[in-house]
Amino acid sequence: MWETSGQWGQLLTWWLLAVALGLDAFSLCVGIGLAGIRLRQVMRVSGTIGAFHVMMPLIGVALGQVLVPFVGSLATLLGGLLLSFLGLHMLWHASRGHAQPTGVYLSGTGLLLFALTVSLDALSVGFSLGLLAGSAALAVALFGLMGFLMAGFGLLVGRRVGRWLGEYSEAFGGLILVAFGFKLIVGG
To answer: Where are the domains of the chain?
Structure first.
């Protein structure tokens, strides 16, 4: 299946993007976990975030494919700018020390809004995926899996570890997004 180095490079790129998106979910979930959360809630929250990490990029892919014929290389530039902006926002957020418990009500509408907020960056990543060659289905499956795993892990870590970890993971995720955004801006 993965016969060429280009395909392996594409898989590595998608995996790194999945990690970057997952680190954002991880950092926010560490804060939620610090406030205390039951194991049943961990599964519900991480499952919802994983589902949103699949749905949002698919929406972005659809928008990216619709817009490509009209805006061409400008769309790649916009995708790169969006990724860079989100990464810089994550870095700014981490530097300001905002990785604290959010007090989000984690059921019903509160859970859906939290998952939507955590997954908004996946929308712009999906937009960028619509501009790149390859299997978007594999990419969004990786995003969903990594979002689920890292959100759950963040919630569990948050139950046990101090607040400092969330800031560092969010900053690392921001650096990865900025790097991929820069790659799109300078050379697609």
So the answer is: 8-187
